[in-house]
Design a protein that fits this description.
One of its GO terms (cellular component) is plasma membrane. It is a multi-pass membrane protein. It comes from Snodgrassella communis. The chain is built from 13 helices and no strands. The chain is globular, with a radius of gyration of 18 Å. The C terminus is likely disordered. The chain has one domain. By secondary structure, the chain is mostly helical.
């Protein structure tokens, strides 16, 4: 049976999100030997050259207006999102970051109202947002009910969601011009890496290639660079092109489930009943808010 293009988009998004749900674990493991900016740079430089191998074709200059759109996508989806996420993981758990990532569809829907001409959301959308925010608050406390460095990590994870929402909208706008997905993704990576250069100096980037003598470091960098970055970014952008930014972003809510299970199994992270309630509220809020969002022109 041949799947329709829309069905293919949903299947591709599901596989992509499953892989992304485990990236927090790989990043957490790498943080033992690498700074957040080092993981980010090594990951995307590897991803960038992988995309050249997958499609060794030159992507011509598309004019200042289009290139600014690509630059903004690289800034939001590569430099800012992953830098915030990686730094967040130094202060909070992989489970927390994974759950908070489920807010991305809500932020995407809000931005779509202004930039993709989505319909004004119904009251249930706002109720869902409040439930999701309450859930994130509970997750941040995670049974301790005291302010700590955990809060900083969780706030950075929320900011990362905002950047991802911006990236989703920019990706949809870019895909409307029917560019080759791999070439377009590679251009996003290029601008993301260029914008990352000042951060290398600010965060005291070091090469220290001896760290790659550890098999675990090699495996996790390859997983993040080849799979989660090069292949998954291209597959996600293709899914967005086939289905739409708002509709496809709902798959993000599967990320925390995957992350929580893998974090408990691999990292032995604790998961209290308060965090469980927070997770339930967050996911319920996202599902409620997404239920009636429609895009007039997709």
């Amino acid at each position: 049976m041949v799947l329709s293009k829309r069905a293919q988009g949903h299947v591709i998004a599901l596989i992509t999100v499953f892989i992304w749900g485990t990236t927090y674990i790989s990043t957490k493991v790498l943080l033992a030997d690498f700074k957040p900016i080092e993981i980010l740079f090594f990951r995307f430089i590897l991803g960038y050259f992988t995309l050249w191998i997958l499609s060794p074709h030159w992507f011509a200059w598309q004019g200042i207006r289009q290139e600014l759109l690509f630059l903004a996508a690289g800034f939001c989806g590569v430099t800012s999102y992953f830098l915030c996420e990686n730094v967040a993981l130094t202060y909070t758990t992989a489970s927390n970051v994974g759950v908070i990532a489920s807010l991305a569809p809500v932020f995407t829907a809000i931005l779509a109202i202004f930039f993709l001409k989505a319909e004004t959301p119904p009251p249930r959308f706002y109720i869902g947002c409040l439930l999701a925010i309450l859930g994130v608050v509970l997750i941040s406390f995670n049974g301790k009910f005291v302010l700590s460095l955990n809060l900083l990590g969780d706030l950075l994870a929320v900011v990362a969601c905002l950047f991802w929402a911006g990236y989703s909208i920019l990706t949809k706008k870019s895909s409307n011009y029917n560019y080759n997905i791999i070439l377009l993704t590679r251009r996003f990576f290029f601008y993301g890496l260029v914008l990352m250069l000042p951060a290398l100096y600010i965060f005291d980037f070091e090469w220290e290639l001896a760290r790659f003598s550890k098999l675990a470091n090699v495996f996790n960098i390859l997983f993040l660079g080849l799979g989660a970055s090069a292949i998954c970014f291209a597959s996600w952008n293709y899914a967005v092109k086939l289905v739409g930014a708002v509709k496809i972003s709902i798959y993000i809510y599967l990320v925390p489930i995957i992350t929580i299970v893998t974090a408990m199994l691999i990292l032995k992270e604790p998961f209290t009943w308060i965090a469980a309630v927070g997770t339930l509220l967050t996911l319920s809020g996202v599902l409620l808010s997404e239920g009636k969002i429609r895009v007039k022109r997709d």
